[in-house]
Design a protein that fits this description.
Length: 297
């Protein structure tokens, strides 16, 4: 399997990190495991873990409602930015939206409530020194397009919104993310393993898997798998970065796969997604005993 995956990424543009582990057997493949990659929206996974393991400085009820204000809106992925100001959403709904449609507004509201320092403290408590959250979505996106994040104004929001649509100078923009939210595929996969094996709180683990399994962006890890395959994943994208990290529940009691693929320097979004999909299919086929490059309908 390692040879097949090495061939897949060797034929692709850009740099890839891959971590695959079959949880029940302990077998794993790691490629570029110690390289630090920009997480993009995969950073919302450690934020979710911190939220559901009560890493916030004070107790938080998921039923608490937070009002959406004008200056909460963040451009990019998500739907809350399109809704009326004044809407009150539960923290549970914000957490769900930041994962299943990668809602940037929801993510920043949750992150501001918890605090970056508490997300990072939780990762260190879990032994994951190579997952570091330094920026909110707003800070990441404004930095990417070369705009100062503060002060927030509606005019600045609109400027960033428009600049994100401009597909020019991408390599220069990517340099602006070098000090962003960084992680290795090794530690990200280790976080997924802790979730799957209930090495964080059992209730939190179940909640995390439930939310991840409702992911709406399915063009990466799940893309080439049989439609009935249960998956739970979180994608991430900015510029030439195309990422996915998730759990594949194999059929017929074949076990559980955890897979993290981080990449940078992709020529197109579709190209990066295709590589991730091929890697997932290769691992799935290996552990389910499928040969011959079967196509799933």
């Amino acid at each position: 399997m390692r040879g097949e995956i090495t061939k897949i990424i060797g034929e692709a543009a850009g740099s890839f990190g891959v971590a695959i582990k079959h949880v029940e057997s302990g077998q794993e493949v790691i490629i570029n495991g110690e390289k630090q990659f920009e997480m993009a929206s995969v950073f919302k996974l450690p934020v979710l873990v911190a939220l559901l393991t009560n890493a916030a400085p004070r107790a938080v009820s998921l039923d608490t409602r937070m009002e959406i204000r004008q200056n909460d809106r963040v451009p990019g992925s998500g739907i809350i930015k399109e809704l009326d100001e004044g809407l009150a959403m539960t923290i549970r709904d914000l957490a769900t939206l930041m994962i299943i449609v990668s809602d940037n507004t929801a993510a920043d509201m949750v992150l501001h409530m918890i605090g970056k320092e508490n997300v990072n403290r939780k990762m260190k408590e879990l032994g994951l020194e190579n997952i570091v959250v330094r920026q909110s979505c707003w800070e990441l996106l404004t930095g990417y397009v070369g705009v100062e994040p503060a002060p927030y104004t509606p005019e600045k929001y609109e400027k960033v919104h428009q600049l994100l649509k401009v597909d020019e100078d991408v390599n220069r923009k990517m340099e602006n993310t070098r000090q962003g939210n960084r992680a290795t595929v090794t530690d990200t996969n280790a976080l997924l393993e802790k979730i799957v094996t209930r090495r964080i709180e059992v209730t939190a683990s179940k909640q995390i898997i439930d939310i991840l399994s409702r992911q709406q962006y399915r063009q990466r890890l799940p893309s080439l798998l049989p439609p009935a395959t249960k998956t739970a994943n979180k994608t991430g994208t900015i510029g030439t970065v195309v990422n996915d990290a998730g759990i594949l529940f194999l059929p017929d009691h074949k076990g559980t796969l955890i897979i993290t693929v981080f990449s940078e320097g992709n020529r197109t979004l579709a190209a990066g997604e295709n590589v991730i999909a091929k890697i997932a299919k290769t691992a799935f086929d290996h552990y389910t005993g499928i040969t011959g490059g079967q196509e799933y309908q």
